Amino acid sequence: MIYWPDLHDCPRRLTSGWGHSRIFAPEAYERARNRQLVPIVHGEALTLAAWFPICWQMRDDRPVLCVLRSLLPDGTGHPVRPSNASGALPAALRAFPVILTRAADDAPEIWIDDVVADQPTDIGAPLLMSDGRLSRGAAQRVHTVMMLRRSIDRTESLTDSLHGGGLLEPWPLDFEVGPAGQRARFDDLLVVRASALASTAAIQLLRTFGVDAATFLTAHRISLFRIAVLIQAARAQVKSARAPEPVA
Question: InterPro entries, from UniProt (predicted)?
Fold first, then answer.
């Protein structure tokens, strides 16, 4: 089972035949640079809240915890470049092109997104060494995926409890980002209701999930103020894209 399949274009299981393939920094891949909404696990919230709003997006009638990195559909207007600066890159993208999959009962398989790095800044690193072992760069990304595997079930359980307990509410966004009336709109996002934090359901949730849930909820609510930074970044991007070319 591949988690968050919309993050990937061409998933393939890693085999010895990949020895000739190379991987590059996440910023080298268009998928990682310009992804607008990226799924995360709850343990990332405290770090990412310093940069982006953390919310849920409805996918297949189920909320998925995400970080909102840009208000523009193509992912431009990103307020942090490079996007891995100071921990601003979600783990799923730090691991890219290694894919998060459910671990098998026996030796876990490793899956790779077989995509081209369209903006490499160096020669990259091999996926596999000549002796068949993972290269250092590939091993680091596999370790990131293993961290996600350890956290994703708890994240989904926490989300289900919030959603089932009626603690989430719609977070519709609609902002003008361009002088010609260009707008950024979202109607499928959810956040925790501020008024629900003192409810009986919220207290029970904290008893169930403990201190990490309290830390997560605090980071989530604080992160929503970062929407102002995204608005500024989106407007600056639209303005620069409309600027006339300088006359030679």
Answer: SapC
